[in-house]
Amino acid sequence: MKSALGLTEACELIQAKELSPNDYLGQCVARADEVEATLKAFTVRAKLADLQNQSKPGPLMGIPVAVKDIIATKDFVTTNGSPIYKDFTPKEDATIAKKIRSLGGLIFGKTVTTEFAWRHAGVTTNPWNSAHTPGGSSSGSAAAVASGIVPLALGSQTAGSIIRPASFCGIVGYKASFGAVPRAGAFPVSGSLDHIGFFTRSVKDAVFAFNLLRNTEIDEEDAILIPELHIKPISMPRIAILRTPFDDLLSSEQIKTVEIAATRLSDAGASIHELTLPQRYWDGIEALAVLMSCEAAVIHEQHLLQSRDLLSNDIIELADRGNACPSSVYIKAKNLQRELRTSIGKYFENVDVIMAAPATGEAPKGLDFTGNPIFCSLWTFIGTPAIALPVNQSSNGLPLGIQLIGNYKEDEKLVSVAAFAEDCFRAS
Fold it and tell me: Which residue of 17, 205, 376, 386 could cross-link 7, Cys pair, CB 3.0 to 4.6 Å?
């Protein structure tokens, strides 16, 4: 995989006037031109001249950012991965896109998503092997960062759509605590579950992006405020390896990857032990499916009435399940979500983070199936922060990694341990 500048490195060089923004943008466009015919990460890209003309001072001056195609952009078509919106250009940017521009960043283009960020896959390929999926639904965003086109891309996660593609593509994927990053202007999958997050090449870069783009005021539903994060030195992190009812789905190589990660962390001074959770937590995965389907039924009501022939069976089936779900079941799912978000804290009293598999194994072969999100779903349901880190490669040369999970609103502790872990993995 071609090496490329990380986000903070590029920003520092540009701010120090050691790197010309125009030259850097030219390098990024050239890289996209080189790989896009096979990668197919973008639905649309800005022209180099337009990017160079838009460059202005700010902490993100000259930085091209790839934006998932469910996030509204006023100067690009926002298709939501659906033919229904193939010609739709929003009148204004999503809140997070406005933030990027206000900080001097540039929207490099819109990245391929599965249809309405649900299952029906797009055309993007895995940058490590084009015969394999990059994961979904944030397919193009993960691939764009992993292939060296841009140093930062926006994705979203409603089950496993940041952590899983980051793992499949061998990069860092960070989903902050639910509500910490602006969602206004992103087409919803499920308002109770949707997170906006970041793809980068390092933990430091993910923290840098979060600090610039996080919520700084409560101006939308479910928004929370998390102060600026700092990666703090940590010498003896306490890490719990999670055992789940679904571990029989893990490939032998994914199991080995978690073991390798645990050994390297232990050798570096971390304390490691195993953790199991009561069944009530795993009931949260079924409850997630309830929230998603019920809310999708409302979101897609008009699509079903007016454009049903343009919807995939995946979306139709999702909405149909929601329409058939009793309101009492939905209310119970919401109550369980609130309960678990509070009660999960007791499992972090004696550990700093939980470590788990991010996916069942390497990226599946073929482009129709973007992978099983089951190892990410509980943490999305609860809303706890999670971060994916690359560890090694499979026998097929594809990335394998882990995810670390923190307590709700304890993002700083999570990213500090993640930086410690990243150093361990890179040193080995």
Answer: 205
Instruction: Report the half-sphere exposure of 396 (CA within 13 A, side-chain side).
Output: 17
Residue 344: which residues within 8 A CB-CB, separation 6 or more?
281, 382, 384, 407, 408
Spell out the residues 6+ positions from residue 182 whose beta carbon is closer than 8 angstroms to its own: 94, 95, 96, 99, 196, 213, 215, 220, 223
CB contact at 8 A, 204 and 316: no
C-alpha to C-alpha distance for 318 and 36, rounded to whole angstroms: 32
The structural domains of the chain, ordered by start, are 1-428 (3.90.1300.10)
State how far the alpha carbon of 48 is from the alpha carbons of 100, 140, 271, in Å.
18, 19, 49
Q: What are the DSSP calls for 259-309, one per residue?
A: HHHHHHHHHTT-EEEEE---HHHHHHHHHHHHHHHHHHHHHTHHHHHH-GG
Catalytic residue ranges: 68, 137, 161
Please give the single-letter amino acid code of residue 113.
T
3-state SS class at 129: strand
Measure the CA–CA gap between 355 and 414, rounded to whole angstroms: 11
Residue 348's CB: how many other CB atoms inside 10 A?
Answer: 20
pLDDT by 10s per residue, the chain, length 428: 456 899 999 999 999 999 999 999 999 999 999 999 999 999 999 999 999 999 899 999 999 999 999 999 999 999 999 999 999 999 999 999 999 999 999 999 999 999 999 999 999 999 999 999 999 999 999 999 999 999 999 999 999 999 999 999 999 999 999 999 999 999 999 999 999 999 999 999 999 999 999 999 999 999 999 999 999 999 999 999 999 999 999 999 999 999 999 999 999 999 999 999 999 999 999 999 999 999 999 999 999 999 999 999 999 999 999 999 999 999 999 999 999 999 999 999 999 999 999 999 999 999 999 999 999 999 999 999 999 999 999 999 999 999 999 999 999 999 999 999 999 999 87
Taking alpha carbons only, the member of 240, 235, 242, 239 closest to residue 268 is 235
